[in-house]
Write a structure and sequence with these properties.
Layout lengths: L10 E5 L3 H12 L3 E5 L3 H8 L10 H10 L3 E4 L2 H7 L2 E4 L15 H10 L7 E5 L7 H12 L6 E5 L9 H6 L4 E4 L3 H10 L1 H5 L4 E4 L1 H32 L3 H9 L20 H14 L8 H23 L8 E5 L14 H11 L3 E5 L4 H7 L4 E2 L3 H5 L4 E4 L4 H4 L3 H4 L7 E4 L6 H6 L3 E3 L45
Parallel strand pairs: 1-2, 1-4, 2-3, 4-5, 5-6, 7-8, 9-10, 9-12, 10-11, 12-13, 13-14
The structure holds uridine-5'-diphosphate-xylopyranose (UDX).
Length: 486
Amino acid sequence: MNKQRETGAQSITVIGSGYLGATHAVCMAELGCRVLAVDVDETKISRLAAGDAPFFEPGLEPLLRKNLEAGRLHFTTSYDEVAEFGDVHFLCVNTPQQDNSDAADLSYLDAAVAALAPRLRRDCLVVGKSTVPVGTAVALAKMLVRLAPAGARVQLAWNPEFLREGYGVEDTLRPDRLVFGVTSLEAEARLRRVFAPIIEAGTPVVITDYATAELVKVAANSFLATKISFINAMAEVCEAAGADVLTLAAALGQDPRIGPRFLQPGVGFGGGCLPKDIRAFAIRADELGVGPALSFLQEIDAINLRRRGRIVDLVRAAAGGTLEQCSIAMLGAAFKPNSDDVRDSPALAVAATLHQLGAAVTVYDPVANDNARRVHPQLKYADSVSAAMADVGAVVVLTEWDQFAELDPVALANLVRRRAVVDGRHCLDGDRWRDAGWEYHAPGRPGSVPMAPAAVPTQRTQRPALPPLAPGRTGAFGRSSSDGRR
Ligand code: UDX
């Protein structure tokens, strides 16, 4: 590597300026690197360059502005500038689920490398951060050497990212661990320099090969998804047995071998990562001839999707037995709080199904209404909780924003036509709502409506149960992640 460039702040580029890339670019600048971030979306780049974060991520915008002002952070749409500028290039593009398959769509990643590689005329390190099927890095390393004028002086490393949306800044500046998949000491040394402040703060570093680095990410997300679906499976059993899944989860979580995190039952997981990652991982295992090792992930997916059907059953019961003509307030559209991301959002999937089943659904989310409207324009959207709740027959909470947990059920009681609430995230104080005269329904808790037959599969391999649909209607909780994909 070029010795002159070894001294002082590192010049890094970030390719792809979405949730992962923009957060990474801002945080790397905050750590002292000179950063140039690129994206093919001109609007996104001009907003970022003007200090305006194009998505909701707490804490990101002040750091974006601070580092723009400090002159450490720049944005461009030019790959020529990127190739010229960077000693280290981070690949942060999206790898969504393919439209017609469960496999990962690597077209954005391939396009990024195809745009970058022919412009690489000097030694540099390309670092993959995108979530990919194991084996991708080896193929990309060969592609880089083949296409780059600098040939073998361009090296590749794999450095998976574990950031959670909503905590992206914190997770990038203070990660649990760093994983470096490398094939040379030189690549490792360069990554250690880029991440020096994080490493000096005591963050463990795992040095490994490409394949292991790629697998750490999908294995971690599979484990988390499994933990969530485990407790949701327990919720199904609790519903059948008259037990309380919240008490069960609390008792399980006391065991330090199990731990309480990611053991919150409810409507299940969504978002741009967990659902598509477990599906793509299962497909890759199949390709590698070890499909049976990951066949359990189909069950994890099925349990997860069944929870959406279960919520529909609870809403139907809360609404008095029928959804036809019923007006419903849906509180929450984002796949989780502190995010405006609606990709594979359980809240929106349930809202769309309720609409399909004849209900008039009004959605309110503190930050995700606009993104939700783009994906589901057929739903109504309100600007406040009280506007969404006016004269409705049932209220459903499916994203656990703090402001929903703090709602005053007494003050809201006179807004609605029928005092019935479904708490699909267990974020409300059920006793408080009952005391205020509300019918309170929560999945997996005693007193919840008995399981509808459609929500209880009898065959082990059965696909996700769909909520009952009116004759002639189609679709429900499919396995596509195309809703809201960016
Ligand atoms: C996840 C991983 O946590 C992160 O490490 C990885 O880099 C990207 O994927 P993210 O998608 O941002 O992050 O969200 P996460 O906090 O993991 O939540 C995923 C989904 O699971 C959300 O819909 C959330 O509501 C749900 N969830 C989470 C539960 O239903 N129960 C839980 O106990 C925890």
